[in-house]
Amino acid sequence: MNINPTLKYQIGDQKKSFFIFWIIMCGLLVLTFVASMILMAVYGSFDSSNDTATQIVTPFYGYYMFVASVCGIYLFFSSIGSFKENFLMMQQNSVSRKSMFVARLETIGIMSLIMTVCALVFYYLTWAVLRIMFMIEGSSDTMALSFAEPNSNAILTLVETLCGFLLLMAIGYFITVLFYRLNKTGKILVPILVCVLFAVFSTLSSIFASHPIVMALEKFWLLCSATMSAQIISQFCFAAAFMLVSWLLIRRAPVKRTI
């Protein structure tokens, strides 16, 4: 099976950081397990006469969201540093911008899918470690195993996670392309303006709360987050919009030679 060399290069570019990330995550899980065993050995068994143990892990959905959030942060920052060096190298080797961008789209999709699967596997691995801890401690309590929000569809939860990863990687890629296109003054002014907008956002939203545009934006936001299906569709559409703008920036991006 022949693999696009451009796609192979971009995936390989993220392979090292991907493995380092999961080694750290699994290492933290092992350290938590070892530390818990040491505490049990020193202080004896925890009191399991009440249902405290079960309450800690039931429901377990909050922990899955925590793992997904950590994975999303990794994908966001890994995507931020994924344009300049790749762009210059591929332009030097006469790779078209379209081929580079298409390969990037495929990379974002593949990395998001792999990270979704890995997050789910890590969730079950954590559950197994916790179950072993409770068995060693001697608790007879049972733990509910559910990575999905109560009364929701597990498949939709996974799809929402995937679309969330797509959106975060698309935003990260847009940011790095935008900063590549900006001059030195723009690279200083844009972060300052963004920080100022975040600082005064609550004040401005309260002042202009009755403005038709603000009210329309609020209704649009409520519509996008009304149901899980709406969240999936909105996240995918926003990801597509960010990638479209990134492509428009890449089409006319100059080749900035670095010394």
List keywords for this structure.
about 260 residues; mainly alpha
Overview of this structure, please?
- The chain has helices at 5-43, 52-57, 61-80, 84-92, 97-137, 154-181, 184-207, 212-224, 228-251.
- By secondary structure, it is mostly helical.
- Mean pLDDT is 79; it is low at 51-59.
Fold blueprint:
Blueprint: H1 5-43, H2 52-57, H3 61-80, H4 84-92, H5 97-137, H6 154-181, H7 184-207, H8 212-224, H9 228-251
Helix pairs in contact: 1-5, 3-5, 3-6, 5-6, 5-9, 6-9
Question: TL;DR of this structure?
Answer:
The protein has 259 residues and is mostly helical. It is 79% helix and 0% strand.
Distance between the termini: 38 Å
β-strand percent reads under 5%
Shape: globular
Largest sheet: none
SS-based structural class? mainly alpha
Q: How many extended strands?
A: 0
Give the low-pLDDT segments: 51-59
Q: How would you state the average pLDDT, rounded?
A: 79
List SSEs in N-to-C order. Answer: HHHHHHHHH
Share of helix among residues?
over 70%
* Cα-based radius of gyration, to the nearest Å: 23 Å
Number of helices: 9
